Amino acid sequence: MELTLLPKRKRTHYCGEPGLEDVGKEVVLMGWVHRRRDHGGLIFIDLRDRTGIIQVVFSEDIDPEAHKLAHRLRSEYVVCVVGKLRRRPEGTENPNIPTGEVEVEGHELYILNTSQTPPFPIEDEVNVAEEVKLKYRYLDIRRPRMFRNLLIRHKAALSVRKYMDEQGFLEIETPVLTKSTPEGARDFLIPSRLHPGKFYAMPQSPQLFKQMLMIAGIDKYFQIVKCYRDEDLRADRQPEFTQIDIEMSFADRDDVFAVVEGLLERMFKETIGVEIETPFPRYTYQEVMDRFGSDKPDTRFGMELCDVSDIVADSEFRVFTEVLKKGGQVKGLVAPGCAKLSRSQIEELTEFVKIFKAKGLAWMRVTPDGVDSPIKKFFPEGTINALLERMKPNPGDMLFFIADQPKIVADALGNLRLRLGRELGLIDENRLDFLWVVDFPLFQWNEEENRWESEHHPFTAPNYEDLHLLDEDPGKVRSQSYDLVINGMEIGSGSVRIHDTELQRKIFRILNLSEEEIQLRFGFFLEALKYGAPPHAGIALGFDRLVMIMAGGQSLRDVIPFPKTQRGICLVTGAPSEVTEEQLKELHIKVDLEEK
RNA sequence: GGGCUCGUGGUGUAGCCUGGCCUAACACGCCGGCCUGUCGAGCCGGAGAUCGCGGGUUCAAAUCCCGUCGAGCCCGCCA
């Protein structure tokens, strides 16, 4: 095949651009052969680039040489076409593509490169195994949908930089090779060649650096920054991901909220043309746990949880009463129209709630003449009536109940709510529900390690009204942290930070860190706090997740050009991979693999 | 660490439950030929699969069993 290595002409248009106004002009196009329709004497080529598709016609009449060469074109060949733009003959217009009223007479054709037959067609709505798409990611990205997603990503980042700049924030880079500070996610480690036996860590977030930038007087900082966490993957979790990291001095929670609300308003407008409503509603942690069984509630539909502990307390149903005696609770929800569920469907839901440690799922069908349930006999009529009165079901609905410790009830019933909401089609996919969750507890008790841990992170300031509780009842202390939630997904998390050395020390001690550990891990930071640290607050927003929401994707992989598989492998490069003995030796590393 | 779903020509599926009629079917793609208005072009012809891998059961395995690898979703984990 005769290739033209260097096109002799400069591109005049992208494939998606020419229209009726360009008819008569000579155009020079570069692109990939999307499809070839070879009629023998007449050949149609759909030429594609990132902007779209345009039809090129080759024939004896137009140019015999180009026509002859066009027979050799195949899918994904890279070509340069020079030709005159003309209006398509009447009746042959294609209303399905933006350039469908015109076509290019193929006067000159240069084949810039050939291509193997692609493993899958370059089209949206391809039904191909994730494995294949990820291995040939560069072909996957040729699909218009993927390109659009990356374009959205680009526009979103641009919008962030413009807005933050206008608000007086400086984008400042922080190190990628940094210090391991356990507490939190597992670190990715990097061995040091110059310091045998020592390691850098990749940042889980630039948390301490941005706080030190506040101490440095930067005042308003932001960064679109990669973060790394060596934990298992999910549809919404990749080991390396991007945050919009923000920190501001002399600011409180409301200042942060105002900046973020303005930022998102601007981003959604400029990126996908959607107007969002600000300010976002605020919920306390306690409220969302009670009502939705989740600290990141999806408020696009109702079906809220209902505490019925007091009503069922004096029933004969042991499953409920025993749990209540042990300090547990009984909560339920109304599943609209679900009285018609079969035994096996209920069984499936029971299996589902067991994933979240619930021991079972009690149910009552609501019929026009009362309730129908295997456990009905344990409840006096008054109790049933009280349940109906509180939960307010309609005939045809189903009541589901879970009895257990509060955390399990919230988890199981909250997830049941989400599943039913999805399966019953109660979620309006066009809706965007932004909300803040505030007043998180400062600590949570770690059963296994028998100690308090930070709910957010150890640099989060306690609610100053609760300071007196730090010693007597740490579990009751509220923090000045906050989460941003969109459509039931955690999008951001931040807090007012501790800027006082003594308070910071105290928190470390409650977390059961010895003086020695504190010094070893965070000594440098405590030292920094001593030199006039201003009060400051900040937040980090999950950029990939935001882009995913704007792009309407189901997985983070949809908006990351080269993502990892669920087992953390990059299928394009094959990373992670083994390295040579020499490399290991230089790093003073011996690999100790278990024999299989 | 655990649970569930999936793995059959290049791609997507059928066949698997109920083993033999499978010499593995279909669509798209691919290769060759014909073809001047197609745009999922059409028509004719053709190539292409040790049914992810290993072991077992059986006269006989794509099909049943065990193990293993890979992809996905979830639990744990993710300050």
Describe this structure as you would to a colleague.
With 596 residues, the protein is α+β, with helices and mostly antiparallel strands. It folds into 3 domains: 94 residues, Nucleic acid-binding proteins (OB fold (Dihydrolipoamide Acetyltransferase, E2P)); 241 residues, BirA Bifunctional Protein, domain 2 (2-Layer Sandwich); 127 residues, Gyrase A, domain 2. The chain contains 17 helices and 22 strands. Strand 7 and strand 8 form a beta hairpin. Helix 4 packs across helix 6, helix 4 packs across helix 16 and helix 10 packs across helix 12. The model has no long low-confidence stretch (mean pLDDT 95). It binds one RNA strand of 79 nucleotides through strand 1, strand 2, strand 3 and helix 2.
Distance between the termini: 50 Å
How many distinct folded domains?
3
Strand content: 15-25%
Q: Quick one: CATH class of the largest domain?
A: Alpha Beta
Radius of gyration: 30 Å
Strand order of the largest sheet: 6-9-10-22-21-20-17-11
Query: What is the CATH architecture descriptor of the largest domain?
Result: 2-Layer Sandwich
- Low-pLDDT residue intervals, each spanning 5 or more residues: none
CATH topology call of the largest domain: BirA Bifunctional Protein, domain 2
**Annotation field: number of helices:** 17
Task: Tell how many strands the DSSP assignment holds.
Answer: 22
CATH superfamily of the largest domain: Bira Bifunctional Protein, Domain 2
